[in-house]
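Objective 1b of the project was to move from sequence-level analysis to a structural picture of ligand recognition. The entry below was assembled by the postdoctoral researcher (A.K.) and checked by the PI before modelling. It contains the amino acid sequence of the target and the SMILES of the bound compound, magnesium ion.
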Amino acid sequence: MNIQWYPGHMTKTRRQIEADLKNVDLVAEIVDARIPVSSRNPDIDTLCVGKPRLIVLNRADQADPAMNRLWADKFRSLGYAVLETDAKSGRGIQQFSSMVRQALGEQIARWREKGQVGRPVRAMVVGVPNVGKSTFINKVARKKSAKAGDRPGVTRGKQWVNVDGGLDLLDTPGILWPKFEDDRIGMYLAFTGAVKDEIMDVETLGCHLMSLLALRYPQALMESYKLSQLPGREGEENDISYGYRLLEACAQKRGMRISGGEWDTQRMARTLLDEYRGGKLGRFTLEVPQKQ
Ligand SMILES: Nc1nc2c(ncn2[C@@H]2O[C@H](COP(=O)(O)OP(=O)(O)O)[C@@H](O)[C@H]2O)c(=O)[nH]1
Ligand SMILES: [Mg+2]
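Corresponding predicted holo structure:
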């Protein structure tokens, strides 16, 4: 992933998506189940106003199963249809087509009244980079970058992928930008690997991730790094300072030293990020739904 979002780029993307929206009945918004807040586009509601939307909690295999349920409930309570998927293995994908039809039940009934029986439903897939849009589309369509016949006037050169006779998918995933104004969001996107580490130095990123995991998943963190207990957090201690002490403790357990004899917290931070992204520490969800 290497997209720079500049005002011009964002405007062009917004226009493209607005134009594509005219040709679809529903929008499938793909969200990263590990960070369901940070992986959403801030302008999606304005962009998709009036379009039925389905939220796909993708990467469910990498997220905490109990939190997947909480998030699904949360989005349902906001009025969205929700589907949990692991686009890599294909789990949950087979329900997509029936969920789309269900979400469009009234619309389909109206088409039927007008005699438009058998009109296929058209859906567009949108999401921020790296959430799994392409993988999702390929799995739904059961083929790799499938090509279907252009429909003059409707698609203007775009490819429609026919999924099962009743569902057409727009083959160009709408790539939306994440929210930038909030540093926390940039950091969460870096934790999962959705944006490059360069937004922050690796050690600082590692300190923040350590603090967060110690708060949300202390048991798993202790088990992964064989810590008999987590160091206590001092009164006003900030995430960086506390995370740094955790990095030291883990580096010690792993025998990571630098030449002067100090613990190699830099290397430990790198290891933590790699292991978190590789799912070696467990299935962790970093954002919790807010209570209403
Ligand atoms: N474990 C896991 N990996 C996934 C999932 N979805 C996508 N990926 C992987 O994430 C990477 C980025 O996916 P891609 O479809 O290119 O994301 P896009 O930028 O949104 O189109 C690829 O290596 C995929 O194999 C998922 O649900 N679970
Ligand atoms: Mg892609």
